[in-house]
Design a protein that fits this description.
By secondary structure, the chain is α/β, with parallel strands linked by helices. It has helices spanning 17-32, 48-56, 105-121, 126-134, 363-370, 376-392, 399-414, and strands at 2-4, 7-9, 64-70, 75-81, 95-98, 137-143, 153-158, 163-170, 175-183, 192-201, 206-213, 220-229, 234-241, 246-255, 261-270, 275-284, 290-299, 304-313, 321-330, 336-345, 351-360. Helix 1 (17-32) runs antiparallel to helix 4 (126-134) and helix 6 (376-392) packs antiparallel against helix 7.
């Protein structure tokens, strides 16, 4: 058993040898990393050391395993302690849901290759390495080749499990609508959670991925999502954070095959002293891929939103089409929005665009709506609703969309003017 700075690396008797070896490799990488290795520019609005101090005390909590069930609207995945009865999964569906430790030898080889993708393609920070070494909740979701899962798959997550790892594997020409829904448990308060998601989309597969969170406003949620897209794969990712004292989201999209498409949508609605920090990098390493990043943020009271979007087009990635846009609306004098769109272009024959705005409420628009019989408060709330409409209209119809619309509408009605 190895120990670093009060964090222990535990060999788990219940897990297979291949998984222990991988976790130990990640632990060895973590042990060599230093805080100086972090990109201080990316972390200048959040203090990583304090987050780490809060995380390390629970890095080896109780293991939790997924349970798959079904209702009339969706497939549901929830988690329970390892000591509870092991879940049984239906063989009628072309989908596999399990912990990493329950995989057979063939599936384990596939998963190990997916887990190594981030290590091969990109530098890991201390949080990413700690996650891979000490996760106490793991979920593996695999869709069979050519399969289409019609019902949305809703993955319910709670912040009381401190470190989670989700691995998603869409085999060739498969299709999945996955919703990651974060909430707080009844006894949760002042929790910090690090969530890592690694998704591999094989040739011609299609993933609709939505991440929503409405955790209590004492919790802190750090998420790192990495998507790898092979030839002609399609990704649509949507981020809808509303809760938490701090929500920091990192998204990386790496194109591995030509003709792949990635679209990312998101909205932020901050109030009180909330901080929402979103970073995205679209890695265009191969020709003729497309990416689109579209975010709208509203902040009020003393809340803050940070948006950093980077499109990196490497040499040889000709025919790339990439766009990103971020619009921000300030509802109070003390609210703050920071937006930084970036382009790194190392080749020719590409089409790229980026734009960002930070604006306050338009008194002209307010006056116009008041002239139509609305009060000033009603006018402002209508403007905010209209500001979010381009994002909300992109949400697929169904239970989750209704939940999101209700949460956003409730936040609009709570705005103090």
């Amino acid at each position: 058993m190895a120990q670093i700075d009060n964090i222990q690396f535990n060999i788990r008797s219940s897990e297979p040898e291949w998984l222990t070896k991988f976790r130990k490799k990640s632990w060895d990488l973590f042990s060599k990393q230093k805080w100086a290795d972090l990109d201080l520019e990316e972390w200048r609005y959040v203090e990583p050391q304090s987050l780490y101090e809060n995380m390390k005390t629970s890095a080896n909590g109780h293991l939790r395993r997924p349970h798959l069930s079904k209702n009339e609207h969706a497939l549901l995945v929830t988690h329970a302690n390892e000591s509870e009865e092991k879940a049984t999964f239906s063989n009628e569906l072309p989908i596999q849901v399990s912990t990493l430790g329950d995989l057979n030898e063939t599936d384990a080889k596939d998963v190990l290759s997916i887990l190594n993708l981030p290590l091969t393609h990109h530098r890991q920070d201390v949080f990413g390495s700690l996650n891979l070494a000490c996760f106490n909740q793991s979920t593996y979701i695999s869709i069979e080749e050519g399969a289409c899962i019609d019902a949305p798959l809703i993955l319910d997550q709670i912040v009381s499990s401190p470190i989670s790892l989700l691995v998603v594997h869409l085999k060739e020409r498969s299709n999945l609508n996955l919703v990651e829904r974060w909430s707080s448990g009844a006894s949760d308060s002042n929790n910090i959670h690090h969530a890592r998601v690694i998704c591999l989309l094989e040739t011609g597969s299609k993933l609709s991925f939505m991440s929503t969170q409405n955790v209590n406003e004492e919790s802190q949620l750090l998420s790192h999502h990495h998507f790898f897209l092979h030839k002609d794969a399609q990704l649509e990712a949507t981020y809808l954070p509303l809760g938490g004292a701090l929500s920091r989201q990192e998204q990386l999209v790496t194109f591995l095959g030509e003709g792949a498409h990635a679209k990312t949508n998101g909205l932020v609605f901050g109030h009180k002293k909330q901080v929402f920090d979103f970073h995205s990098v679209q890695h265009h390493d191969v020709p003729r891929c497309e990416s689109d990043l579209f975010f709208r943020n509203v902040v009020t009271d003393q809340s803050k939103s940070i948006f950093v979007g980077n499109v990196a087009i490497r040499e040889g990635a000709s025919g790339t089409v990439a766009n990103q846009a971020n619009k921000n609306l300030l509802l109070s004098a003390e609210a703050e929005a920071v937006t930084t769109p970036k382009l790194e272009i190392d080749t020719e024959d590409v089409v790229c665009g980026h734009g960002a705005t930070v604006a306050t409420l338009s008194e002209t628009e307010i006056f116009y709506l008041q002239s139509r019989g609305l009060t000033r408060e009603q006018a402002i709330k209508m403007i905010v609703g209209g500001f979010f409409s381009p994002i909300l209209e992109r949400l697929p119809a169904g239970l989750v969309r209704d939940e999101v619309l209700e949460s956003v509408e409730q936040r609009i009605q709570e705005v103090s003017l």
